[in-house]
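#structure-requests
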Amino acid sequence: MPARVSEALVLRTYPLKEADLVVSFLTRDQGMLRGVAKRARRPKNPFGAGLERLSHVRMAYFQRETRELVNLDSCELIRSQFGLVSDYWAGVALDYFAEVSEQLLPAAEPNERFFRLLLAVLDDLQPTSKVWRAVTYFSLWALRLSGWMPEMGSAPKLSSESRAIALEMLRTPVAQLSKTDWDQGTAADLRRYLVRQIESHIERRLVTAPLFEQVSS
């Protein structure tokens, strides 16, 4: 029997040897972990579609204190994001959520609020016209939950509209935000400002963020 079963969101996977994968995943109770999924790249494997990007799963794994990587045993799929992959904007948003989460979160430090943030924005992505709202909300709260919340009043390039949107997002769950006509241009300066803040703390350029600039409204 596996030593632990955790509710988790899969962030990234990386090839290892011929048939294995290294999986980065965020658990509700143990924080972000990385583990080896043996034979996961073979047609018949115990993981199925559970290791797809941002799949919501129950992950079974063995964890030893002396090893950085856990050994993944299997996963039970709770919810996949398969319904979003045909939408380009939503697909880029999924990559962005995964990349930012993996870069901001320290290993093995429980952060249930960040876990719930990801679940909330994934729910909000289902009507794909809300992509930009979910991306902005996630960026703002990812910084806040990481302890690097910027002072909106000291950002001279932000418009009054963006400041108002930021304040509303800090006070209101994403599903209950006012019905703004969200598109690529809505609060674009706020999004760019938040991305710069994230990059200043992780000390690298995000791969996914520039893709948003390439999407025409």
